[in-house]
């Protein structure tokens, strides 16, 4: 009985830890992934041997907040590719909970908007919880060793790209280029909750 | 004449009151408003017309407003400013909700999200319960009125 009590206590401790909000903080090492993109191929960060870093953007088709950032994401991908950074978009939503975010509709959207970067489907929703993404859009900047350098928003103005004052993500990349810590290294913005079937 | 006035009041006073939206340009204005209304426990729901799970749970907040007299329900719309008339007002008019409806226009999210709750990442729906100096925050949706009501009662009786 005493043994059972200890086991039960241990189980409780483990359970209470696992219910803590998981996810990365700046400085943590991020996991790589192998996910299918809209071109039908599988992508991993390990495929990019020469990349100086990665801009991992959790985004999706349906969220109006994410949609407002689409053109900016396309522009960032082009601009930073030439500097050696790869932008990788991941749709974390379960299409069973949000049909607009199905793999087929991801293909349509990528074509419409002329995505020049992988737009991956988080099949089985295994990757976004490890990163601790909670919403779309949600950005993680990683250096070449996959250490998290910045988490949060792209900039400080969802409504108007022309009226942006703080380019959080670009500032964080500039800091990384200079081997400095991003400041701020974490920002918050409103977004759509990640859709999980109940 | 008195009856006439009364009828007018009934017609316009009550009906317009139901869809009145108090606008806050800055987050501090909302915080002040909540502070002023704190004489009873507050249930503050952050939502937007573009957020499907938010719209799904609003009827539970309406039911809470009608049935749980221990609390005051205040909804805070985070809609885009250009959608204020076309989407937000239209939606509220159609739904005829009677809880308090407010609109927070402040777009400097990074400056105020943590003031609502340190752990809020910014996804909506999100609900804050204020009971005196105690605050209970949830960054997810409720799947039924019972779930919401139980959560509210548990939070204010802690």
Automatic annotation (TrEMBL), chain A:
Species of provenance: Flavobacterium aquatile LMG 4008 = ATCC 11947
Instruction: Keyword check for Manganese, yes or no.
Output: no
Question: Which Pfam families is this protein grouped with?
Answer: AhpC-TSA
The UniProt keyword set, sorted, is: Signal
Q: Where is the signal peptide?
A: 1-21
Q: Which InterPro entries does the record match to this protein?
A: AhpC/TSA (IPR000866), PRX-like1 (IPR047262), Thioredoxin-like_sf (IPR036249), Thioredoxin_domain (IPR013766)
GO MF term list: antioxidant activity; oxidoreductase activity
Q: Which Gene3D superfamilies match?
A: Glutaredoxin
What is the name of the protein in this document?
A: Redoxin
Q: Where is the Thioredoxin domain?
A: 24-174
Write down the superkingdom of origin.
Bacteria
